[in-house]
């Protein structure tokens, strides 16, 4: 199962960052490729993610659910789509700069597209994780 | 003695499948009727001592970057590749040429000699589709084929995907006409496709044409193609698997609708506790070894219609005193150093016409020539300072005059004709430079390896009705068969003929799932 861990600092307190992470609409504004979001309930949302591979867009519809949470420190979510399942673990820890955020993404392709999903995740995850970190950093550096 | 799995045929797919299963802890026996392993990975001194000729496959485009090479640790088992800097040279009748490079900018510079617009188009194609092809080609090859509906559903939801779907439906010539303006650039890219056996004017091959435009590689197995098979054998044996050569399988034994073993030509029976896996082409596997009386009628119909009517090759194996020196090298010196040189006329219509002639049983009189020079890059395949060449001319298996047997009367004259065509491009290839020659007409190709029915070196035509989800038959592209415990793993399965071990790898995956074996490589 391809997985990717990322760790970066955000200039905000764990509480402020937690409030942001728990606001699906705000959070999805920082996730690269999210085109559409529909909040189903406070723990569930449906997303449409578009990943462009060169000129070819791949569109994935996901249903994301927060499975477990320990505010404002830990969150475990699962997003499922027709061809993949993504498990996300986020941990927040107070630091001198604000908050140290650690996230682990495990993506498993399912069904006939499994090998393609896995290959794409391998190729793209580092770049997308960096974009996510960058977006969060920008969001919290605003006055 | 009983084994968990008995594999019929020690071609590279059979060996790869067996090696995966053996490393997973199964007891595996591979049976091979010839006295060597490898099938189309066949290197032999067919002309003079010390000259190692690759009788069928010469280049293994996908192997070094494949999961098979990595998973089975083939490098540790002695399989090494060299990667020529100059991949191919397409030489036109006016002695201009295009050398093929794996690096997009070098490739674009070659194309720009003929058309700046085509070079820009190529760069744009790389930008738009290069990553897509890189990201999908191996996952698609090294996994069971996608149902067409899944593929279409992904693509039809966006305009860009719809364009790809339309391209996929087109013929290679249509796609090249849409993309490029220079006749020579089109010939170069079309040749990348037809050398694999794909027809230039076949609908439904556009996407494969695009893949071939965007990818380029020519890895040569050090010591000859046979060394890949020997490495696979070592990988199998390292995990307790066994190979028996000189052991022809006569029948696949059934108990009810279950394969339980095989019977050899001498009457010996070998039991398979779990399954029999056949690497032998479908007509022999199912109509001869199983027997159609044991199979559903609808399946028998699919087996009977499996076709091998495409173009074959007329082959000359040459022992050379020196390598060819092409006239074209005066304007483009790397032509002489390329792994292969290709001479297919100056316009795509010539390849279309050649395929039409071949379908009518006529051996083309114009050059439809690919000449491979492995010894330029791997000197171990010939004595010091000497070279081998393999000359391929597109040809029919069945001649209008005399059918396959007609080659007996034609082969000597045609060999001289083909050499004459080649000499018009490489004038130093005079008789004194050719130390020895072995003619291999399409019927010899089949005799050397009877999986290559009709001399079709990709184990059945690569046409849209026999590709992907439809290979070998609609509804049976998942390596299973209607007989329980009987699996398919040959080049007649997805992803098709050619040396990439995709079918062996994929069959092992399906079998591991069916028998709940550890899929240690996943």
Description:
The complex is a heterodimer of chains A (143) and B (522). Chain A is 29% helix and 51% strand. Chain A contains 3 helices and 7 strands, in the order βααββββββα. Chain A has helices spanning 14-21, 24-28, 114-141, and strands at 3-10, 34-41, 44-53, 56-70, 74-81, 84-95, 98-109. In chain A, β6 and β7 form a beta hairpin. Chain B is an alpha/beta fold and 522 residues long. Chain B contains 16 helices and 18 strands. In chain B, strands 1, 2, 9, 10, 11, 12 and 18 form a 7-stranded mixed beta sheet that branches. Chain B has a 7-stranded mixed beta sheet with strand order 7-6-14-15-16-13-17, sandwiched between helices. Chain B has a two-stranded antiparallel sheet with strand order 3-4. In chain B, a hairpin with an 8-residue loop joins β3 and β4 (53-54). The chains are: A alpha+beta (143), B alpha/beta (522). The interface between A and B is medium-sized, with 17 and 24 residues.
Could you give a short account of the major beta sheet of chain A? 7 strands, antiparallel
What is the strand tally of chain A? 7
Helix content of chain A: 25-40%
Radius of gyration of chain A: 15 Å
Largest sheet of chain B, in brief, is: 7 strands, mixed
The beta-strand count of chain B equals: 18
Compute the number of helices of chain A.
Answer: 3
Task: Let me know the average pLDDT of chain B.
Answer: 96
Low-pLDDT residue intervals, each spanning 5 or more residues of chain A: none
Global mean pLDDT of chain A: 89
Shape of chain A: globular
Class inferred from helices and paired strands of chain A: alpha+beta
In short:
By secondary structure, chain A is an alpha+beta fold.
Itemize the secondary structure elements and their pairings.
The complex is a heterodimer of chains A (143) and B (522).
Chain A: E1 3-10, H1 14-21, H2 24-28, E2 34-41, E3 44-53, E4 56-70, E5 74-81, E6 84-95, E7 98-109, H3 114-141
Antiparallel strand pairs in A: 1-7, 2-3, 3-4, 4-5, 5-6, 6-7
Chain B: E1 2-8, H1 12-23, E2 28-31, E3 43-44, E4 53-54, H2 67-71, E5 81-82, E6 88-91, E7 97-100, H3 104-112, H4 116-141, H5 148-155, H6 159-169, H7 172-179, H8 183-194, H9 206-214, E8 220-221, H10 226-237, E9 242-244, E10 249-255, E11 258-264, E12 269-278, H11 282-291, H12 297-305, E13 312-320, E14 340-343, H13 348-359, E15 369-372, E16 387-395, H14 406-423, E17 434-440, H15 442-448, E18 486-488, H16 502-514
Parallel strand pairs in B: 1-2, 1-12, 2-9, 6-14, 12-18
Antiparallel strand pairs in B: 3-4, 5-8, 6-7, 10-11, 11-12, 13-16, 13-17, 14-15, 15-16
Helix pairs in contact in B: 1-10, 1-16, 3-4, 6-9, 7-8, 7-9, 8-9
């Amino acid at each position: 199962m391809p997985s990717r861990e990322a760790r970066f600092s955000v200039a905000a307190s764990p509480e402020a960052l937690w409030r942001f992470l728990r606001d699906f609409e705000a959070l999805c504004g920082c996730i690269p490729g999210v085109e559409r979001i529909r909040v189903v309930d406070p723990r569930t949302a449906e997303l449409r993610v578009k990943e462009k591979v060169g000129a070819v867009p791949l569109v994935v519809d996901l249903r994301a659910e927060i499975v477990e949470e320990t505010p404002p420190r830990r969150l475990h979510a699962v997003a499922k789509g027709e061809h993949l399942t993504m498990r996300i673990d986020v941990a927040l820890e107070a630091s001198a700069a604000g908050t140290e955020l650690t996230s682990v993404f495990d993506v498993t392709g399912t069904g006939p597209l499994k090998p393609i999903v896995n290959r794409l995740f391998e190729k793209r995850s580092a770049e997308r994780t960096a974009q996510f970190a960058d977006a969060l950093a920008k969001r919290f550096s605003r006055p | 003695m009983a084994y968990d799995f008995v594999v019929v045929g020690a071609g590279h797919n059979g060996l790869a499948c067996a090696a995966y299963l053996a490393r997973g802890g199964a007891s595996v026996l591979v049976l091979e009727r010839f006295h060597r392993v490898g099938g189309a990975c066949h290197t032999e001194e067919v002309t003079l001592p010390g000259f190692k000729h690759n009788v069928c496959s010469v280049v293994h485009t996908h192997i070094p970057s494949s999961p098979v090479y990595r998973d089975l640790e083939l490098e540790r088992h002695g399989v090494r590749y060299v990667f020529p800097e100059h991949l191919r040279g397409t030489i036109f009748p006016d002695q201009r040429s295009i050398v093929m490079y794996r690096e997009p900018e070098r490739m674009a510079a070659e194309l720009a000699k003929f058309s700046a617009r085509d070079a820009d188009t190529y760069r744009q194609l790389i930008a738009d589709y290069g990553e897509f092809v890189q990201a999908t080609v191996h996952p698609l090859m090294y996994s069971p084929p996608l149902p067409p509906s899944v593929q279409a559903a992904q693509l039809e939801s966006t305009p860009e995907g719809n364009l790809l779907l339309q391209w996929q439906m087109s013929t290679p010539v249509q796609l090249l006409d849409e993309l490029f303006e220079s006749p020579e650039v089109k010939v170069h890219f079309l040749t990348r496709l037809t050398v694999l056996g794909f027809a230039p004017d076949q609908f439904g091959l556009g996407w494969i044409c695009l893949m071939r435009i965007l990818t380029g590689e020519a890895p040569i197995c050090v010591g000859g193609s046979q060394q890949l098979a020997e490495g696979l054998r070592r990988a199998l044996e390292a995990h307790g698997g066994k190979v028996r050569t000189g052991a022809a399988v006569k029948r696949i034994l059934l108990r009810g609708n279950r394969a339980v073993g095989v019977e050899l030509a001498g009457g010996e029976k070998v039991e398979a506790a779990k399954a029999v896996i056949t690497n032998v082409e479908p007509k022999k596997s199912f109509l001869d070894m199983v027997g159609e009386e044991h199979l559903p009628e609808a399946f028998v119909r699919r087996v009977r219609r499996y076709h091998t009517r495409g173009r074959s090759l007329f082959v000359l194996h040459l022992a050379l005193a020196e390598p060819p020196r092409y006239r074209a090298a005066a304007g483009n010196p790397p032509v002489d150093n390329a792994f292969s040189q290709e001479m297919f006329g100056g316009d795509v219509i010539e390849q279309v016409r050649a395929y039409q002639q071949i379908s009518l049983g006529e051996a083309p009189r114009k050059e439809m020539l690919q000449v491979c020079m492995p010894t330029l890059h791997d000197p171990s395949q010939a004595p010091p300072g000497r070279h081998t060449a393999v000359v391929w001319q597109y040809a029919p298996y069945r001649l209008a005059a005399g059918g396959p047997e007609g080659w007996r009367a034609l082969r000597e004259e045609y060999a001289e004709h083909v050499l004459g065509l080649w000499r018009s491009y490489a004038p130093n290839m005079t008789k004194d430079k050719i130390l020895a020659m072995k003619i291999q007409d399409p019927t010899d190709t089949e005799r050397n390896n009877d999986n290559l029915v009709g001399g079709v070196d990709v184990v059945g035509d690569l046409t849209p009705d026999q590709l992907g989800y439809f290979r070998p038959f609609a509804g049976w592209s998942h390596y299973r068969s209607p007989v329980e415990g009987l699996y398919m793993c040959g080049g007649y399965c997805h992803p098709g003929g050619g040396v990439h071990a995709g079918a062996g790898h994929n069959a092992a995956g399906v079998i591991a799932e069916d028998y709940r074996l550890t899929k240690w490589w996943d």
